[in-house]
Structures are given as C-alpha cells and as structure tokens.
Write a structure and sequence with these properties.
The protein is an all-alpha fold. It is about 80% helix and about 0% strand.
Length: about 140
C-alpha cells in the first residue's frame, strides 16, 4: 500500500484556478508588451546577445500569457499545467541564479541573505527536477 500521495493527482480548486488566471492575465499582457518593446531599444538592436535575451524574455512572458488563459479556461495539458520540460527549465534557471550570484558579487555584499537564497534555490531545483522525472515516468 502506497501511503505517499501522488504529486500529479493533487488539484487546485477550480475557483482558485480562475482567480489566479484573472490576476495573472493583465500582468502577463503587460509583460508581453514590455518584453516585445525591448526590441525597440537601440542598444538591443545593435547587440545580437541582447537580442537573444530579449527573445527569450519575450517567450517567457508569452508562456505566462498562455498559462493564464489556460487557467481561466480550465485547459490542462497531458501533464497538468507544467510538463516535465517546463519543470526542468525552471530547475535549471534556479541553479543558474545560484551560479550567476557568484559572478555578481552578491555573496560578498550580502553573505547571509544570499547564502540562504542560494540554498533555497538549490532545494527548489531538486524538487522541481524530481517532479519532472516523476511526470516523465508517469507519461511513459
């Protein structure tokens, strides 16, 4: 007998999904408009690396917009709202924040706070990666 609950079976009430979607939708729309407007900055237009980051940021904002619409309409994908790929990307981003902190000097300026955040990001990354592995196995 398995006493542990299945993380994929836990569901948020429908009213909470709609409320989250309604709150997220205008913010996501604003983010999409702002992210796309970054391409109009002359410095971004002249630097291919900044164009890449602006494109990635635009895609992230567009993904948030799609997620908010899915929350409002109740459209769940095969894996729920976040599939294994999205969870792994979020985990890698959390680890990248920890690594980037070493290059920005944040650990020197704020050693306690930055260290606690780094530990938290690593734990979040581990949890997200495990959840992604669980969902990928369940789909297979």
């Amino acid at each position: 007998m398995d006493a542990a609950p299945d993380p994929g079976s836990l569901s948020i009430p429908r009213w909470a999904q709609i409320a989250a979607g309604v709150v997220l939708l205008p913010l996501a729309l604003l983010c999409v408009v702002g992210a796309v407007s970054i391409f109009g900055i002359p410095k971004v237009q002249s630097d291919p690396v900044l164009q890449l980051f602006a494109g990635l940021w635009s895609l992230l904002c567009l993904w948030a917009l799609v997620l908010s619409v899915r929350l409002i309409l109740g459209l769940r994908g095969r894996f729920g709202f976040f599939g294994p790929v999205a969870l792994r990307i979020a985990a890698a981003t959390a680890v990248a924040l920890v690594i980037a902190g070493a290059f920005t000097g944040i650990y020197v300026e704020h050693p306690i706070r930055a260290s606690l955040l780094a530990i938290t990001y690593v734990f979040i990354a581990i949890k997200l990666w495990r959840l992604a592995t669980h969902r990928a196995r369940r789909a297979a």
